[in-house]
Amino acid sequence: MLDTRFPRVVGDIGHPGTFAFPVRYATVRGASPRRVVVERDPRLVAPFVAAARELEDEGVAAIATSCGFLALFQRELAASVAVPVWTSSLLLVAEIEATLARGERVGVVTADEASLSADHLGAVGARADTPVEGLAPDSRFRATVLDDREALDEDEARAATAAAAERIVARRPDVRAIVLECTNMPPYADAVRAATALPVHDITTLIAARLGA
């Protein structure tokens, strides 16, 4: 888990009620959203590895992280423990795209489009030209997540996430499935499905599918 204070509602990876099975959490102190998303601080690899090993020692069956931008650390974290590690829903992009017809693409909705790079996509086997759409710069949801604010307007967050999905579909009619990068977006996945009429995937659907839960 990133070191955050913003609210975690049901559906968010940080709320234990999101899952139909027991979850354990380990917080990486000092791993702020901006340090992970915007700064891409490589000094965070070691403490995330330590947290993963701590969870493994506690007997967990698998490990996930609370920020899709940690895709950059996928190889290091996966190599550090013997249990499966899923740093990001971006792991789904190439897998889903392989099931689509030729020319059809997976679109990614992210918290911060400017920070999601080809490096993040490449680290999990996704194409560098994957269509990406971020939350609007003036979105309060974006500010809550990136600036770690204490207030969360769920209605605005839902609308902002759905609007980003609508933008990517309007801009890229070849998008036939959507992956929500941000682990705080799953509570609004149904709104995205309703707005786009497309399959929508996120970190919680990844975890459930991999665990058969």
Task: Explain the overall architecture.
This protein has nine helices and six strands; from the N terminus they run H-H-E-H-E-H-E-H-E-H-H-E-H-E-H. Helix content is 38%, strand content 10%. The protein is of the alpha/beta class and 213 residues long.
In terms of topology, how is this protein built?
Layout: H1 33-37, H2 45-57, E1 63-64, H3 74-80, E2 85-86, H4 91-97, E3 105-110, H5 118-123, E4 132-134, H6 140-147, H7 154-171, E5 175-180, H8 189-196, E6 200-201, H9 203-211
Parallel strand pairs: 1-2, 3-4, 3-5, 5-6
**Average pLDDT, all residues:** 97
Order of helices and strands: HHEHEHEHEHHEHEH
Main-sheet strand order equals: 4-3-5-6
Structural class by helix and strand composition: alpha/beta
Q: What is the helix fraction of residues, given as a range? A: 25-40%
